[in-house]
Amino acid sequence: MTEPDGKPFLYVVVCAAGIAAGVDELITAAQERGWAVGVFATPTAVNGFFDTAAVETRTGLPIRSAWRRPGDPRPFPDPDAVVVAPATFNTVNKWAAGIADTLALGTLCELTGRSVPIAVLPCVSDALAAHPAYQDSLIRLRGMGVRFGEPYEGGGTGEFGWERALDLLEAT
Ligand SMILES: Cc1cc2nc3c(=O)[nH]c(=O)nc-3n(C[C@H](O)[C@H](O)[C@H](O)COP(=O)(O)O)c2cc1C
């Protein structure tokens, strides 16, 4: 759903990987490309993995981490696109398995398979990525149209290549 100010709305889903400290770079880049941004974070991610106050100032919206109460309005409009960055081993596997025990996962499970483009930048060590469950999860999610960035080789947050997520969304 396009925002009243005419901008398309992007959900950015942040998981609890150390690299999440740099997510402001993604949000700024998305805004520069014309997106309005609303951030979802897993309950672990919101607990010290990034500067939540800075992100809320940047987006002008509260970060969504917990389910709203019945009867409360939905704080964000429907998305035009979704980015999951960084995506953890835990969240990728639970998402593929259809587990919805965090708001971030419930939102992803609901949106997968709709016409909304979803781009994912995993931050998963080689050791964990070799687990067969993770490989199965990638196959399953790709089969549902989810677009994955290349595995992250490590390095500082500036080297994560946050804009890869936006490029993946724009790829036809
Ligand atoms: C400092 C720190 C850095 C972490 N970095 C990663 C990471 O890069 N990738 C990953 O898959 N898990 C990482 N973890 C483990 C996740 O935080 C853990 O699996 C957690 O359950 C993920 O929750 P979430 O998927 O709900 O965000 C890290 C944990 C800590 C404490």
Structure, described:
The chain is of the alpha/beta class and 172 residues long. The protein has a single domain (9-69, 77-170), classed as Flavin prenyltransferase-like (Rossmann fold). The protein is 34% helix and 15% strand. It has seven helices and five strands, in the order βαβαβααβααβα. The chain has a five-stranded parallel sheet, sandwiched between helices. Helix 1 (23-32) links the parallel strand 1 (9-14) and strand 2 (36-41). The longest helix has 12 residues, at 132-143. The chain is globular and about 40 Å long. The protein starts with 8 loop residues before the first strand and ends with a helix. The model has no long low-confidence stretch (mean pLDDT 94). Bound molecules: flavin mononucleotide (FMN). Flavin mononucleotide binds at residues 15-18, 42, 44-45, 88-91, 102, 123-124. The site of flavin mononucleotide has 14 residues, from helix 3.
Global geometry: globular
Question: Which homologous superfamily in CATH is the superfamily?
Answer: Flavin prenyltransferase-like
Range of strand content:
15-25%
CATH class: Alpha Beta
Total number of helices? 7
* Residue runs with pLDDT of under 50 for 5 or more positions: none
What can be said about the biggest beta sheet? 5 strands, parallel
Find the count of extended strands (DSSP E, 2+ residues).
Answer: 5
Radius of gyration: 15 Å
Mean pLDDT: 94
In terms of structural class, how would the helical and strand content be classed? Answer: alpha/beta
CATH architecture: 3-Layer(aba) Sandwich
The unique ligands bound to this protein are: flavin mononucleotide
Q: Can you tell me the number of structural domains?
A: 1
The amount of helix comes to 25-40%
Strands of the widest sheet, in order across it, are 2-1-3-4-5
Q: How many angstroms separate the termini?
A: 20 Å
